[in-house]
Amino acid sequence: PAARQPLPAHWRQPLGLALLLALAGPGETLQNVTAQLFGPEAYGTLAAFGDFNSDKQTDLFVLRGNELVIFLADQKEPYFKPRVKSLSVVITSVVPGDYDGDSQMDVLLTTQAQNHGRDELSVFIFWGHNQTLDLNHKTMLNKTFHDEPLVMDFNGDLIPDIFGVTSDSSKPQILIGGNLSWHAALETQSKMYIPHSHAFIDLNHDFTSALQFFFYLSEKIQKTPSGVKVVGQSVFADFDGDGQSEHLLPVCEDTTCQKSAIYLTKLGMDQWIPVLQDFRNKETLWGFVPYRSDKSSTETSFPITLHIGDYNMDGYPDALAILKNTSGSNQQAFLLENVPCNNISCKSVHRMFKVFWELSDLNQIKDAVVATFFDIYEDGILDIIVLSKGYSNRDFAIHTLKNNFEADAYFVKVIVLSGLCSNDCPRKITPFGVNQPGPYIMYTTVDANGYLKNGSAGQLSQSAHYALQLPYNVLGLGRSANFLDHLYVGIPRPLGEKSARKQEWTAIIPNSQLIVIPYPHNVPRSWSAKLYLTPSNIVLLTAIALIGVCVFILAIIGILHWQEKKADDREKRQEAHRFHFDAM
Ligand SMILES: *[C@@H]1O[C@H](CO)[C@@H](O)[C@H](O)[C@H]1NC(C)=O
Ligand SMILES: *[C@@H]1O[C@H](CO)[C@@H](O)[C@H](O)[C@H]1NC(C)=O
Ligand SMILES: *[C@@H]1O[C@H](CO)[C@@H](O)[C@H](O)[C@H]1NC(C)=O
Ligand SMILES: *[C@@H]1O[C@H](CO)[C@@H](O)[C@H](O)[C@H]1NC(C)=O
Ligand SMILES: *[C@@H]1O[C@H](CO)[C@@H](O)[C@H](O)[C@H]1NC(C)=O
Ligand SMILES: *[C@@H]1O[C@H](CO)[C@@H](O)[C@H](O)[C@H]1NC(C)=O
Ligand SMILES: *[C@@H]1O[C@H](CO)[C@@H](O)[C@H](O)[C@H]1NC(C)=O
């Protein structure tokens, strides 16, 4: 059962801030908070999220040329303060994680290999120690990769492993985290698609993530939708709220992306269903921005990616995408809202995407290149970060937009830790944010209309090509303030183990943060969960009202008590008087 914990100090402040912001701008759903968050430091390429210094606040990993800048979350403005690590190589990606199992955040970097030409990637792991990163304490992997590797938990020991095709073998290899030994990962002759979008996620609902390989060039495993010329990155989300992950794929039906679409499929469904085809707004036709693979250009090109998050907490994941004006040159970030299907073509999945064309502040950012969700104030509401061109020749500008969505919607924020040192951590610091790939979370609840509602999400299912996934999941619950009836958490298990490693918690209070510590890994009964409550405005008002009523009742009781005591005293005095009288 979940033990209730006292509120961590850093949650009190954002509440005051949120109240203030809510008073300042009613009606505005998005608000530019870049200056408060970064001060003058709002530039670079956002590459990953993770709690680097175990203070329970998510930090940002940003690239600036040859520098890795870690923005540590802080209590005072600017809320993110940079710490610079300089390297002499061109960094192409960053994946934080605990690669040796000591519960300290390490950082994996891929860089352009210096003596292998531009197509090969070298991989470095910088070992975290005592909440810092020592640049001299690093390991360079002695194989290079054809494409960015996927970080996953191959052997179910909750230490992240590194998967990819290396230059010395045509078959995918896995580097086991911990002892750093290489193994062949799977038997296949097919070539991997570059840029790949492999994911490590539970698709068949057995609470064990299985690696999904999409887009082998041979179309044996999974065919792309017919007539598709440009394929974007696969992404996995519980699109229709049935408790299972669906596979979403953004595509273009011509090579220049004049005609874009998003398709969906799921396990047991053998065709692709379009969930968004209408990219026309008034006179302008929008489309995805195709990936330029030529590495000679100094500008970073991003694959076509949907970044998933439940913006309005209705229990159905929404998405952010970058679209360009097909007849002009402008490109912008757009919010794709998950709405009930109103078209014959998506009838079988009941849901579809609708583009929010006019979202002020989001459409004021010109030349956007990446847009993703992030819970800036750790209050359970997903805010938006956008990168755009134009800060300088080399660096992108970072914009942060706070989501002031006020619709009495509820959520639960879940983070599953590795549980590797729950009793015996160095310096007694509970490892909080060592990004853990692979856990799977599912819930069932009853919605406002009394129907059963499911939802699910995988934690850190993808890591390559700026997947920018958050180390936690925010599950929207809609407007029903009901308890979460059941919450299931599963973690990967070693090959050959029969029973699923999964545990169930019941009656979770909404608007709370649940931290699951799966220790020991193979005894789910003993796993623990800590519940932190986020005081939403309603909870606060209720508390104030309750305290008010209590004070009122206490006052009445006090007055009555006092009156009774007075009457008693009077009576006693009279009695004494009488007695006195009688005695005479
Ligand atoms: C947000 O604020 C920052 C700093 O004040 C400014 O540079 C940026 O242009 C603003 N962005 C938008 C979209 O207004
Ligand atoms: C770790 O850092 C703390 C303070 O930052 C310091 O007091 C301590 O000596 C360090 N320990 C080691 C082993 O470096
Ligand atoms: C790579 O490193 C491993 C262990 O660190 C070693 O066993 C192996 O021989 C090395 N491979 C090459 C090609 O150097
Ligand atoms: C490394 O660990 C894996 C899994 O725990 C094991 O299969 C492998 O034999 C180990 N390798 C070495 C060199 O110890
Ligand atoms: C939710 O999941 C339960 C059991 O896992 C299933 O019986 C039910 O049909 C699901 N509900 C929906 C709406 O998919
Ligand atoms: C709805 O259906 C029509 C006709 O099949 C199609 O042209 C249109 O693009 C569809 N819209 C969406 C959002 O799927
Ligand atoms: C798209 O580009 C065309 C041609 O440059 C322009 O006329 C139109 O206004 C642009 N649309 C938007 C929404 O910017």
From TrEMBL:
Residues 1-29 form the signal peptide. It comes from Amazona collaria (yellow-billed parrot). Residues 431-532 form the T-cell immunomodulatory protein TIP C2 domain. Belongs to the TIP family. InterPro entries: C2_TIP, FG-GAP, Integrin_alpha_N, Tip. Coiled coil: none annotated. The chain crosses the membrane at residues 538-562. One of its GO terms (cellular component) is plasma membrane. It comes from the Eukaryota. This is Integrin alpha FG-GAP repeat containing 1. It is found in: Membrane. It is a single-pass type I membrane protein.
